[in-house]
């Protein structure tokens, strides 16, 4: 039986979006309407859902938005030309190119082409560098959402032992940097980690981003620990599952996020927050 507190990403998201909406209304009066361009190459079914959710969030908040759907066989040259065009558009403050891209396109070339001021994913090397140094930057959306959710529990991160499973550039690595910024002591686990359960069982805060459905169960978790499940896995049944076996984990954990309704909605909310910030900076308002 679940006795753990469920951290609702949906609810936290709605609260933040309310605040963003109020701010957008104020900015519109000053002639500043945040604009987001989302670029989707090919028809990755998962990406379709996210792109739809992003467009809807823009509409709800009063942002201007453009969705560019390109054929799967679009050349890298044509994609780069679109990115350059969007870089020059004054009505666009944020550019997001949905990943993964088809194999014939070099991801790095595309990310590097996005103007760092418009890189609302926080994937451009300039923004990554600023994140590492601790300077102001556009923070990657999923990691920023993870930190917001932990803050929402009211549990202090400073001095706590945080363990992150996964070390990707888009989730694991930036999450670990943001946790350190909150003064947590951070341990990183990955596919070569030898004694993983020994480590995760010491975690006051456990962030899981492995990309394997129901990978973490109760046996990985210290009683009362905060558990944040970043995983989004589509099961054969069509259902969505996290990287954490919620039924099992929640019997021992403290506050824990569900999937769906956990980190996913926060990712989109942080994207909106970044786009608003980029718009304010473009208008000299921040
Ligand atoms: N909610 C959201 O908004 C988002 C959700 N996601 C989801 O988060 C999950 C992770 O995504 P992402 O970081 O891109 O995934 P990647 O596949 O890029 O990275 C997975 C990481 O997990 C590690 N790993 C894999 N298997 C094991 C294992 N058996 N034991 C320990 N570590 C392991 C890998 O280690 P190694 O480095 O050694 O290979 C790697 O570092 C996915 O389910 C993805 O769908 C992603 C982005 C946004
Ligand atoms: N350039 C780029 N930036 C990204 O941020 C990016 C990306 N590419 N590629 C794919 C991943 C994944 N991702 C998600 C966004 C929203 C939900 C989301 O809204 N999830 C909801 C429900 C989703 C559903 O029902 O399928 C939830 O978890 O409750 C999930 C995952 C962003 N990503």
From TrEMBL:
Gene3D superfamilies (UniProt xref): Leucine Dehydrogenase, chain A, domain 1 (3.40.50.10860), NAD(P)-binding Rossmann-like Domain (3.40.50.720)
Keyword hit for Cytoplasm: no
Keyword vocabulary terms for this entry: Amino-acid biosynthesis, Histidine biosynthesis, Hydrolase, Methionine biosynthesis, Multifunctional enzyme, NADP, One-carbon metabolism, Oxidoreductase, Purine biosynthesis
GO molecular function, one term: methenyltetrahydrofolate cyclohydrolase activity
Domain Tetrahydrofolate dehydrogenase/cyclohydrolase catalytic: 7-121
CDD domains noted in UniProt: NAD_bind_m-THF_DH_Cyclohyd (cd01080)
EC number: 1.5.1.5, 3.5.4.9
Residue runs in coiled coils: none
Transmembrane segments: none
UniProt: NADP(+) binding residues: 166-168, 232
Pathway recorded for this protein: One-carbon metabolism; tetrahydrofolate interconversion
Catalytic reactions of this protein: (6R)-5,10-methenyltetrahydrofolate + H2O = (6R)-10-formyltetrahydrofolate + H(+); (6R)-5,10-methylene-5,6,7,8-tetrahydrofolate + NADP(+) = (6R)-5,10-methenyltetrahydrofolate + NADPH
Domain of life: Bacteria
InterPro entries linked: Aminoacid_DH-like_N_sf, NAD(P)-bd_dom_sf, THF_DH/CycHdrlase, THF_DH/CycHdrlase_cat_dom, THF_DH/CycHdrlase_CS, THF_DH/CycHdrlase_NAD-bd_dom
Tetrahydrofolate dehydrogenase/cyclohydrolase NAD(P)-binding domain ranges (all copies): 140-282
Subunit structure: Homodimer.
PANTHER family to which the protein is assigned, alphabetical: C-1-TETRAHYDROFOLATE SYNTHASE, CYTOPLASMIC, C-1-TETRAHYDROFOLATE SYNTHASE, CYTOPLASMIC-RELATED
Family indicated by similarity: Belongs to the tetrahydrofolate dehydrogenase/cyclohydrolase family.
Function in brief: Catalyzes the oxidation of 5,10-methylenetetrahydrofolate to 5,10-methenyltetrahydrofolate and then the hydrolysis of 5,10-methenyltetrahydrofolate to 10-formyltetrahydrofolate.
Protein name as catalogued: Bifunctional protein FolD
Biological source species: Saccharibacillus alkalitolerans
